Structure formats: structure tokens, C-alpha cells
Amino acid sequence: MKQDNVCKEKRRLLARIAREEGGLELYGNEDMAGEAIEKYLAVFREAMNKNGNYDKYADTSIGYHWCSAFVYYCCLRAGFTFPPKPVPEHRWTLAAVPAWYEWAVLPENDFYFPVDDLQQFPEAGDIVIFNHLIEDKDMDHVGIVLAADGDTITTAEGNFHNRSGIFQRQLEKINCFIRLSRF
Description:
globular; alpha+beta
């Protein structure tokens, strides 16, 4: 019970931090990099270099799709402590949206909720994975739920067209949500 209360408090803090960060409306440059968003990009640079067995991401002028980095940065600030590649044998770090899904659905985890199972409705501090929001593919974007109301949720996101912000999203665009219950 105590662990559950700690995680609830961390998720509330995560939502507050995400709202603050999203409200900054920071933009990346044409290379999806730049001083304004480097604090997000930095959280995965070492892990991506290690995972790819190269050093190209040591160069801060090289960017990447950063929606997952925004989410991970906010999680770290809220006190969640999970590694950037929580499943060593999986292909990707959490810098890739599908890696969040692959991690969440593992049998030993209890924090994956498909959107079609609305016995659990998204709550502030949940991580939400979207389908077909930016590209014509599943699991193309990720954000943090700030509030949920009926058919919409309010989210904080990074890299929605290369900027952070606060957005209203329809439930129909959601693949699943992740409610961190430990870490």
C-alpha cells in the first residue's frame, strides 16, 4: 500500500512537471536538436550510442525524434528511476516509442492498459502512446496525461512537429497508456 501511494504521488508530480515543461513550448532546430531541447535529448544520448555501438549522438548538433526523450526527462525529474533501456535484450532504448509498449506489456509489469479496456481510464501522470497522430503508423508518438474528460485527454508532449506543448487529444488516437506503479 505504501509503495502504491509513493507512485501515485510521483505520477501527480510527473503531471505537474510535464505541464511546466510542455508550457515552455520549446522548439528544436531543423535537425531536431538545439540548445532549447538539449536537456531532453541528453537523457538518451549515451544509451543510444551504447545500444548502436557508435558515438554519433555524442555530437549535440545531431538530434532525433524527441517525444520519448521529453517523457523520460519528465519521469526522471519526478523521481522515477528506470534505465533508458529497461529490457536489455530488446532492440531499442526508450528513445523509440515502441520500446515503451514492449516494456509495459511484459508479464512481470502491471502498468499497461489498452485503450479498448476502459475499466481503467487515463489519469494525470499516465504515459500515453498514440497511433497515427503524426505519421500513418501505430505507436508514432508518446506524451504524458495531464487530465482526462470524456472523449478527450489533455497532454504534455515533446516533438509534436518539433516543439513541446500542451494538447487536447481524442481517445480514438490512443493505442494504450502506461501507469507506472513502481520505480
